Amino acid sequence: SEDSDGEGGLGNVSRVVIRPPGHSGKAKRGHLCFDAAFETGNLGRADLVGEFEFWFNFTVDNVKQDQRVIFNIVNINKKKNLFKDGMTPIVKSSGRPKWQRLPKCDVFHYKSPIHQNNYVLSFAFAFDREDEVYQFALAPPYSYSRLQSYLSVLETKFPENRFQRTTVCHSLQNRKLELLTIDHVEKPDKVDSKNKLRVIFILARIHSGEPPASFVAQGLIEFLIGNHPIAQILRTNFIFKILPMVNPDGVFLGNNRCNLIGQDMNRTWHVATEFSHPTLWAIKKLFREYDQSDCYQLDFVIDLHAHANLLGSFMYGNTYEDVYRYERHLVFPKILSTNAGDWIPENMMFNADDKKTGSVRRFCCEKLSDNVNAYSLEVSMCGFYLKGTQTMTHYTDDGYMRLGRNLARTFLEYYRFINVLPVPLASEVRSKRGRPKTHCARARSRIRREVQARPKTTRTYAPISYKDLSVCYDSDTSYEGSPIRSNYYGYGFGTRSTGNIYLNQDQFSLLHIQASKFNTLDFSTNSVRGLQQNPLLGIVRPTTRTTTT
Ligand SMILES: [Zn+2]
């Protein structure tokens, strides 16, 4: 429509004002202003009624007090998705900068006959404050700038060489491919085939529209460079190489899966060239160097992803003709499954089909030596059901980071399992478990008492936080991925909410639109007929500059 003429760079709308038909002149309050021309923004077009990518991220301002709107995202074509399981868009505003989930009753996903039977995601929303900018997204964004400032903070916080930060190469748009090396291994004088130094590679954000992967990576990094005794053992025995953002251009541009030239980064490993895929090219070179080295042994390549169709966390792996190699390949996911409370074993898949040729894990299993175990670690964009219950737990930032910490702990158990690290003796464990001897305990110990055997319990690992069972998405990443605005609006990178402005977490849920008005619409038949009569209806469409696979 003519209203969409002002599209911003790279297919995103840039402050497009939606006016009713026949209106000209200055926009009035209530003529919504859409914007996605900022880092990680994604909105291709906005229309007054009038293929798919899952990722969207845009802002709306110039709203009217109590204005009620239905947003229709028209190119959500994947039939199978998590909307039926309670995944809903998240929202925040300039005055309330924590992300919150929209209530399920206001979100609909259905087949629309007037959109060639494609699927449409509709959500109803009531704006409550005229002077605020509202931002809607599918998942909490994790931008390139955020990663840069996070790494700078780490550098100042850990000055004593806990890790090295290097730039492997630059992307097509000259952004950095960052590499963190965590290596406190004491190098032996002579390295032979028996005492090679073991190297673990972790990759994240090959798919730029999967920000949860960045939170998992952050959890892993923080654990590994922290003071936890497990981290100390891991640091002094293994070399960790973490590439936290493999597709920095795609992340910056708000793409779903692709890089600048529109190619799915996890389907092009076998055809990557230095010219068109500089980051993949550089990583492949790194892999080969370590794999063919005389003093290093590449043990793991783990690629972090987020999944829009499945719940919980799980792994994808490869299948091998060599049954022993296949057995070895199954060990790590098995141990991780016992560590992660959100693990869903039914979602795991081990395959060797042609469709996934060009993914990291297939590339590694075909081109690198037999000892390399390559996996994709997936985590849901939505949440998971607590074991044995019908309660959906939505992931929070910390829920994702916990998976990263669980991943780190699993390396310890794995290397103990394969006898690379010594297994602690039962006596050592027992002595550590004992309570410190106090005066009372010493006094009591002289009295001989019959010790009753304790009832046997199964030891459960610390589960994901259960505290956020409400629809609120309690996020600490208030300003991340938000457009940079003047201070007047309260936006800006690197600043944090003091917590004062944000007194009432439930503001949005208290403001539910009179749902009955929307619920009476029959979305299954002639869905949008009723909606067309609503003058405030907006249709929004994420950019289609990406390919799907
Ligand atoms: Zn992915």
Automatic annotation (TrEMBL):
Q: Name one GO biological process term.
A: proteolysis
Active-site positions, per UniProt? E378 (proton donor/acceptor)
> What GO molecular functions are on record for this protein?
metallocarboxypeptidase activity; zinc ion binding
Instruction: Cite the Peptidase M14 domain residue spans from the record.
Output: 140-415
Q: Which InterPro entries match?
A: Cytosolic_carboxypeptidase, Peptidase_M14
Q: Where is this region: Disordered?
A: 1-26
Pfam families in the cross-refs: Peptidase_M14 (PF00246)
SMART domains of this UniProt entry?
A: Zn_pept
Its cofactor is: Zn(2+)
Q: Which family does it belong to?
A: Belongs to the peptidase M14 family.
| PANTHER family, per the entry | CYTOSOLIC CARBOXYPEPTIDASE (PTHR12756), CYTOSOLIC CARBOXYPEPTIDASE 6 (PTHR12756:SF9)
Name of the protein described by the UniProt record: Peptidase M14 domain-containing protein
**Species this chain originates from:** Lutzomyia longipalpis (Sand fly)
